[in-house]
Amino acid sequence: MAESVHVLIPTHERPELLERTLESLAQCTQPKEYDGAIVIENGSKAGAEAIVGTYQDALQARYMYVPRGNKSHALNEALTEIENGLTIFFDDDVRVHRGILQAYARAAADIKGKMFFGGPTRVDYEVEPPEWLAEYLPASATGWPEGDRPDEKTFLGFNWAAFASDLRACGGFNPTVGPGTLSTGQETEMQRQLLDWGARPTYVPDALVWHYVPESRCTPSWVLDRGYRTGIGFGYMLWDVSTTGWTYPTWVWKGFLKRTGVLCRDGIFGEKHERFGARYRFWEYLGKMRGAKMEREEDLRADSVP
Questions:
Q1: CA angle 202-205-211, nearest 5°?
Q2: Which of 301, 116, 294 is nearest to 207 (CA)?
Q3: Is 212 helix (H, G, I), strand (E, B) or coil?
Q4: Is the N or the C terminus of the chain less surrounded, counting Cβ atoms within 10 Å?
Q5: Digit-coded pLDDT (tens) for 1-18
Q6: pLDDT at 303 over 70
Q7: Number of domains forming the structure of the chain
């Protein structure tokens, strides 16, 4: 198996949920390679240190704090504390299956690197969303397929694992995406770096978590905002418009005009779900444009450095 297995949990102003996460983790069967959990609080302090202290014995838990409110930055800081081995990433709002640590350890058996892992997710709703809205929720709020290996090559950011040495070799997490920035998707961006570097994704069907979704994240306004931020991450990571200077290429403007037309049509004459769908796709596309611009400006700044 992997030389050692670590758990890394970033947290920000959610002490009750963090305690729920650590309690479920304490119920897990620990493989012999288990080497402890690091909880890294970023931004303001909200009681995480005291909570982690109560799990010091059960989980070999350690507390870290960074004042910068940026999840990617926090993850990079925590990685400096892990010399090598498999690092499992959970968020502070999940509960985990009792066998998850063993499942990841088995998947990494006799592997030294060039591979990353992820498992399925289910959802703990505070209040279940209406059916018409559920189709617009992200996978983090609806669950992620169990059973056969899904087609995706990346995994949800609150249930995956990679070797610390591989993460450092790829430059670590990108602080310009994810919580603490305008966009989502820092784990997806990290996993795409691993793929480009030659690492292979491996699905671990027994590595199951449940993600807590509050009522506030099942509202139309939240979904629209999330769609915009998801669009930013997509545009930043996947749209190649860097060769066009300071303007968007024609195909981007055509897409914008198409969605504007649908918004005007369905926003006036459509049924409730059609009106919302038109708004969602419009704001998601605006996010993609914003993300592409961010990436282009970053490239231009890099090119201007002597």
A1: 105
A2: 116
A3: strand
A4: C
A5: 568 999 999 999 999 999
A6: no
A7: 2
Same domain? For 55 and 136 the reply is yes
Q: How far is CA 219 from CA 128, 157, 222, 267, in A?
A: 10, 22, 5, 18
The sheet carrying 34-42 orders its strands as 61-66, 34-42, 5-11, 86-90, 159-163, 115-118, 200-203
Instruction: Compute the distance between CA of residue 256 and CA of residue 183 in angstroms, rounded to an integer.
Output: 19
Q: 208: left (phi > 0), else alpha (psi -120 to 50), else beta?
A: beta
- How many C-beta atoms lie closer than 10 Å to residue 114's C-beta? 14
For helices 250-269 and 272-304, the axis angle rounded to 10 degrees is 160
- Does residue 188 sit in the same domain as residue 244? no
Amino acid at 218: C
To the question of pTM greater than 0.85 for the whole model, the response is yes
The pLDDT, as a whole number, for residue 233 is 86
How far lies 70's CA from each of 125, 180, 236, 238, 257, in Å? Answer: 26, 4, 17, 22, 34
Of 217, 241, 268, which one is at a domain's C-terminal end?
217
- Write down which residue in 196, 217, 238 finishes a domain: 217
Domain residues for the domain of 299 are 220-304
Give the domain CATH number at 64. Answer: 3.90.550.10
On whether the CB atoms of residues 118 and 88 are closer than 8 A, the answer is: no
What are 70-107's pLDDT values in tens digits? 999 999 999 999 988 999 999 999 999 999 999 999 99
Cβ atoms of residues 72 and 186 within 8 Å: yes
